[in-house]
Amino acid sequence: MRRKITRRKLLADSSLIALSSTVPGFVHKTALANVARDSGRVLVVIQLDGGNDGINTVVPFRDEGYARHRKVLRLPTESLLKVHDDVGLHPSMRAVADLMDDGRLGIVQGVGYPNPNRSHEVSMAIWQTGNTVDPNAEKIGWIGKVTDAVTAPSDGAPHSILVGTEGLPLSLHGRRSTTVAMAHLMDLQRTGQTPPPTEHLNATQDLRSFVARTTLDAFKMSDLIDQTGTKVGNQSYPSHQLAGRLKMIAQLIKSGFQTPIYYAIHGGFDTHSLQLDDHERILYQLSSALKAFLDDLRDAGIDDRVLVMCFSEFGRRVAENASQGTDHGTAGPVFLAGPQVQAGLIGATPSLTDLVDGDLRTEIDFRDIYASIQTDWLGTSPEWISPKGKSSLKLFRPTRR
């Protein structure tokens, strides 16, 4: 069971309910900081929930299979944002195109895994655990394995933070590392535990005890959280949910939180019918939020420490369906954003004529991306995750290492 702390509850009770032994330290120390401190490299993961149609995201418009398989959903060539003579981005992704032109975004093409599964739950579990054989047997996720292996943040911050109201993704589950879910800066949730009984409260278990121990009442703690929230900068964010979540992540990073992993979920990608308008909207939201986030961190002078990875549990079928949508497919693109990534298209563009049962062939195993991120970005060992033991992908600029 997960208990949620809201400002209303906080002020009504004049106390704070248990979250974690880590929470007092990281909220208090961070809120009192006047300047952001270097907390090392950060990974921000955006889950594109529902199965993104990669073919209409990174469009191989010169492939003869595109016009053959996409009659209603075919995007006009003249509207695409050309990456090169054969591939263009969806026209709603102008901000992503600008990031790519600016050398701050790369797209890994044709990403999947062997013997693909078209179930949302199973395929997402595969991506979140790295186990392509029996993901439901896993109790911890690939990020949880990474954070289990690293030193805990020195300021008491959690190893990972989910920003949003969704359930905690399996990828964040670890054996020893800590994770916190936050809907807002003033709305904190402890994941995985219920508050202890009042008679068992002590200085290490409970925020109420922390408040008493530091002579801070609930109002002062609320003020400290507000101080953290004011460190925004001048960057303007769009007024949609994903942008708001990335804005909050930027606030936390700029405020000095030493948490290395942040996670957000962007839904709506299960486009079985009337895909064109919905897909345009959610791709615009992704694109505009990404650029606002990276520009915000660049303005703060800390963007070189941050990597964003956007993935979806699978792509869509090559052929559109009878409902002007697309059904569950296999491989798709993974977006990597930040000033240290290899910009542009990475890997071969999947063929729309050389198919496997009507689906794209997988060109790159997603675990090789994880292995590269672990080795070249987070500095941890990837032997347990990559089928080859070590990824040969070059996702980052060696000169900016």
Describe this protein's structure.
The protein is α/β, with parallel strands linked by helices and 401 residues long. It has one domain: Alkaline Phosphatase, subunit A. The chain contains eleven helices and 14 strands. The chain has helices spanning 7-13, 22-32, 64-69, 94-101, 120-129, 142-148, 207-214, 218-229, 241-254, 275-299, 366-378, and strands spanning 4-5, 42-48, 58-59, 81-82, 88-89, 105-112, 160-163, 179-184, 187-190, 261-266, 306-312, 332-337, 344-346, 364-365. Strand 4 (81-82) and strand 5 form a beta hairpin. The longest helix is centred in the C-terminal third of the chain and has 25 residues, at 275-299. The chain is globular, with a radius of gyration of 22 Å.
Topology summary:
Elements: E1 4-5, H1 7-13, H2 22-32, E2 42-48, E3 58-59, H3 64-69, E4 81-82, E5 88-89, H4 94-101, E6 105-112, H5 120-129, H6 142-148, E7 160-163, E8 179-184, E9 187-190, H7 207-214, H8 218-229, H9 241-254, E10 261-266, H10 275-299, E11 306-312, E12 332-337, E13 344-346, E14 364-365, H11 366-378
Parallel strand pairs: 2-10, 2-11, 6-13, 6-14, 7-8, 7-10
Antiparallel strand pairs: 1-9, 3-5, 4-5, 6-12, 8-9, 11-12
Helix pairs in contact: 2-8, 4-10, 9-10
Which CATH class applies here? Answer: Alpha Beta
Molecular shape: globular
- Contiguous low-pLDDT stretches (5 residues minimum) are 1-26, 28-39, 188-196, 208-225
* Percentage of β-strand residues: 15-25%
CATH homologous superfamily label? Alkaline Phosphatase, subunit A
How many separate domains make up the residues?
1
Order of helices and strands: EHHEEHEEHEHHEEEHHHEHEEEEH
CATH architecture: 3-Layer(aba) Sandwich
Radius of gyration: 22 Å
Secondary structure: number of strands: 14
The CATH topology comes to Alkaline Phosphatase, subunit A
What structural class results from the helix and strand content?
A: alpha/beta
Give the count of helical stretches: 11
Main beta sheet: 11 strands, mixed
